[in-house]
């Protein structure tokens, strides 16, 4: 043990001025600590309580003679003492046990007070004969239950268990060892060990170490050793191990026997245990000096050592070790903080000791890592790189990796750096930069085996202890494409896998096979990203994959009941349009295949719009046509691209014919696309749909931009824009088509617009060239439907100087003849109405000026002889008054006709206020003048009104009671 290093990990507290206060009068015989106080017992029977710094608090007289043992309880503020009191009778022993409640003070005189003594027990009775007490121990089981063990010099242990304060106790006796020599049977020390519900008691004599089991009666004893100790150097560790100090060593005992021993020479006067340290007061008889040592058994060092006086008591309180000397002086020793201890070790370069110290003291990981770092720096400064790296590796997770990496980069120790980076990745603490650096180390060392281990180690599917993207990028840069592809595939990074295949290796077929093996959703994403490259090199295969993605599940769904739902979940061809940006022909091929296979796609409108743009485009670039062998027709791929007719032989000219043939094939292909476009315009707008399956405005713009007249005419006619249709023919000077169009669209009986003929006539009138034939044909339809008045026709055609009068001579003659007939009919009607008007006026004048004679002899209603009272009306009808009832102001016979006239008049007056109806009739009528004339004729829009007497056709009536 003399090889153990000595350190000063402890220091003296309170500047060495500790001592037992003068208030403690007698010699100290026993002491105890707990609950922030130290309690000392003296040979005069007094007990004193000392505060921090050994300051006197108060004292009291516990026993009349002497205090032999005392113990402060931890769970309750109780004090248990053993001492001598006055002997009451010769039969009773003076030795007694007292229990004091330190929380309850009772007055004792006017100036002092003492705690209340809650119980006094006589230790020795007839059944428990008196002997010298050598050791005393109290165990708090569960308040208020106490277990007290009293060791005697005769080899017996007296036990008291129960509620001592209430004297609900049970006594028992344990026999440790019976020896003829009384000095060899004395109980030198005891220790309680609690393991769950089991309670055990160690007992030490000079010749034995025993263990009693106090769980069930009778209590059993087990001898652990045949050798004990001769002094009070007995203590318990915090792990419930028994310590015994002998001259040659300190022994440790557990429940199964002797454990480790530590050879410390010298007589052990006191043993103790403090925070994992062994406390030992050793007497050296050669020098007659006492040495107090604090041993760190785990790290095999002496944490503190000094020569001391005669020690009377040793205890621990306030986190310090307190030694009470025989002369009442005291020492208070406290442990230094961890930082101070480490600084002490670092100055001596004792890094291994420092590491062991922080680990044994269970310091936090950060503090341990700091010690390891300093040790690594020390080794690094000595150029012991391997040993330094071993320490740095243990700091991973606490020390910044850049600190270590920078050191070994500067030292160009790539092997050590590789080892550190590997450990960093194993613990999952590596960043992208660390992965980059490690892979660069592998590639610089050309260590393919380690690279394989790092890349291809099996940590579970998809689990990596490095940044996947960084590993792929570094392997690509170092031309380790196989490793990069392995990582990408294992990590499910399909985009990187394909990037390597396409951009680095050019393996287009393998890339297509890989995409085919993916799930549809993943395949769709990868095709969107790399479709441009695939279309450029493998258009047919790429289109095949796209068709499978967009239609395969749709076909399966069609066999079920909800095909529309499944189709809507599939990728849309519109999502892949961007990959065909430089390959419009392949795009047209793909969309044609899709539309042939899927008829009810949710993206029909977008697809048709795209196809229309491709079909109607004038400058579509076709790679196959622009190749050198221009005489060969374009390849007819699966999409059904129209192919130009093959030439029978290659031209044998200087190249002009080749250019001509090229233009001819291009124009022919253009016309075929235009026909496809027209067919799409028609098929995508069925007659049962109000709106087409494409954007009409976009279709019109495309037709106009590319001068596709047929498509434009179809769209205008479908949208009933008849005037725009005729405008197209006018702009093209297609007179025959214009007239044919008007024949088809100008028939009002079939929903056409007759005003088209007027527009056509105006067109020919402003044409400025001879169009007599067309004008005559147009006039035929204008005359048939009476579309324009003759005067308008004459004014319109007069603007064309190339037309002669002969063109309209027959038309004018027929119109004049019709007008003459109409004039004659109107004159006859006028004469008739004038005669009727004169007759009416004459009758009205006669009614106003001349009397009327009523000669009817019968009632018009009942046909009986007319008698009085009777009523005569100016219409020459006569009635009995009784036959008229209450209605005697109008003729029952003429009233219905008169009411209908009045109703008609009110209706006409009401209609005169409805201006919208009037203008609609004028607008929709062939002859608006006739509508206006009708309104004037009915007097609806006259400025003046004819005022009458209020009743038309009913004259004054007279009544008499006796006749005329």
Can you describe this structure in just a few lines?
By secondary structure, the protein is an alpha+beta fold. The protein is 41% helix and 22% strand. A hairpin with a 2-residue loop joins strand 15 and strand 16.
What does this structure look like?
- This protein is of the alpha+beta class and 964 residues long.
- Among the domains are: 93 residues; 67 residues, no CATH class; 77 residues, no CATH class.
- 41% of the residues lie in helices and 22% in strands.
- It is built from 30 helices and 32 strands.
- The protein has a five-stranded mixed beta sheet with strand order 1-26-25-24-23, with no helix packed on it. The protein has a four-stranded antiparallel beta sheet with strand order 2-29-28-27, with no helix packed on it. It has a four-stranded antiparallel beta sheet with strand order 3-4-5-6, with no helix packed on it.
- Helix 6 crosses helix 7, helix 21 packs antiparallel against helix 22 and helix 24 packs parallel to helix 26.
- It starts with a strand and ends with a strand.
- The C terminus is likely disordered.
- It is found in: Endomembrane system; Vacuole membrane; Prevacuolar compartment membrane.
- It is a peripheral membrane protein.
- GO terms for molecular function: protein-macromolecule adaptor activity; zinc ion binding.
- Core component of at least two putative endosomal tethering complexes, the homotypic fusion and vacuole protein sorting (HOPS) complex and the class C core vacuole/endosome tethering (CORVET) complex.
- This is Vacuolar protein sorting-associated protein 11 homolog.
